Amino acid sequence: MLNVLLVDDEPWVLEGLRTMIDWNKYGFQVCGEAQSGPDALRFIQEHRPELVVTDINMPVLSGIELIEQSNQLLAKPPKFVVLSGYDDFSYAQAAMRQRVAEYLLKPVDDEEIGELLVKLSRKIGDEIEAEHHQAKKELLAVSHMMNRLIQGEYGEAMEEQIKRSLKLEGNSELQCLLVWIENVFDPAEVSPLLTREFEGETGSLFQDGCGRMGFVVQSGASVSGRLQEAAIQIHRELTERLDEPVIIAVSEPKRSLRSIRELYAQTVEVVERKRCLGKSGVFFYQECIRPVNRERLLQTFKTLLETVQEGDPEGITACVKESFAWIAAGPVELEWVKTHVADMEWSVCGLIKDLNGDPAALMKAQERQLGTLGEIRDYRALQAYVERFCLQAGALLSELKLSSESNTIYQVVQYVDREFRGRLQLQDLARHFHMNATYLGQLFKKTTGKPFNEYLGDKRIEEAKRLLKRSPLKISDVALQVGYPNTDYFINKFKLKTGMLPSAYKQDAGNSPDGPMGER
């Protein structure tokens, strides 16, 4: 729909124009009304309607003066249709000199206004299409030059060409503004806003190799005070129109065309860092990029590795987020970060291999899902890569540990059953099986239902009962055989467990072929 503004100092005339004409039928919608020339001029500057229907004879600012000032202030003024009750040829001549689309007398004839709106709708549509075509050609040409400059290509001939295209002065102070939108968008959604907000300023619109829209502006006195205001207005309109997250990054000011590459790099850096944090808004390079504590960042990676070993999914996600928040807070080279991610991958794969897992299978699955680490070109992709790798590795390590622990504790119990006659200590077992002593004790009790020392004591007493019942060994020899070098200590342990002295147990066993009561 094309927008039309209705201007008349008589409210009843405005109401008649709004309600008696079927604007939608001709491809128009009434976007506003004004009862004075100054109000109309402000509305035109802010909302840029394609058509204005105005009375001529108004106080303060007449219709003719409204048209004159609009033509002077705007690079692309709207079409004007003049309505007047004064059938005066001089008015008509003045209106036509201001490039008025049509001059109509009140009261307006329905058929006449209908024919006029059909003609204007077609004419405005043709002009908009022609402008879009021309703007697209110019955007492609300028974008080609800008992308060559961004990639580091430079020369005197190219400098002169860019100066002519951007209409820049010799040693101009420049700033770059870059617009990023979450999903694929039509550049036609962005370019009119940029062009409008910086209308009258020296600069140029371009599209980079990733499809983002940028604007290099000569940041003189005329623009420096309102650059932030313009960026905020662009962000507001794009967010409302597209209903998508929008980031607008603004570089610091620098002089000379050679600085454009650096200015563009600043805006890309801001965009990538804010994308990692899921932010939306207007961000200035000077305000959001600060030096980062690399040692602190490495500590977050160390914590992340420990969390992966623990296999805690929520902890892993939180650690990844914290690590990349540090990355997003300061200028850290992507390749530097990738190097330390590769170190972490190597450490994790080593842990998996130590537990008899298959690290190659994990890395192949990661590659199928998100590609290789070397292929990553931005922080957001790197964050997704690291988070998925750590979550998958944490789950695999937990599974391998569970399997390994079950196998290890089985071996420990078998070892104790076989070697109980020797001098066994929990700490010695832990060293032998490469486990933490406290954790081994907990796992041993969970598996056997008894603490280690109780299990070992029961095992020795059971063997002592067997020897006392079926062998002629003396009490002291039995004690030594089952791991008690001290006979008195053995006697006390035996009585505590069985309620009998070893000698009494042996005597009862000798009196009965089946052994003592309860030992059948």
Automatic annotation (TrEMBL):
Keyword vocabulary terms for this entry: Cytoplasm, DNA-binding, Phosphoprotein, Transcription, Transcription regulation, Two-component regulatory system
Domain Response regulatory: 3-121
4-aspartylphosphate modified-residue sites: D55
Keyword Transcription regulation: yes
Sequence ranges assigned to domain HTH araC/xylS-type in this UniProt record: 410-508
Location in the cell: Cytoplasm
Protein origin, superkingdom: Bacteria
Pfam family, one: HTH_18
Gene3D superfamilies per the UniProt record, alphabetical: 3.40.50.2300, Homeodomain-like
tRNA processing among keywords: no
Main localization of the protein described in the UniProt heading: cytoplasm
InterPro entries: CheY-like_superfamily (IPR011006), Homeodomain-like_sf (IPR009057), HptR (IPR051552), HTH_AraC (IPR018060), HTH_AraC-typ_CS (IPR018062), Sig_transdc_resp-reg_receiver (IPR001789)
Protein name: Two-component system response regulator YesN
Organism per entry: Paenibacillus favisporus
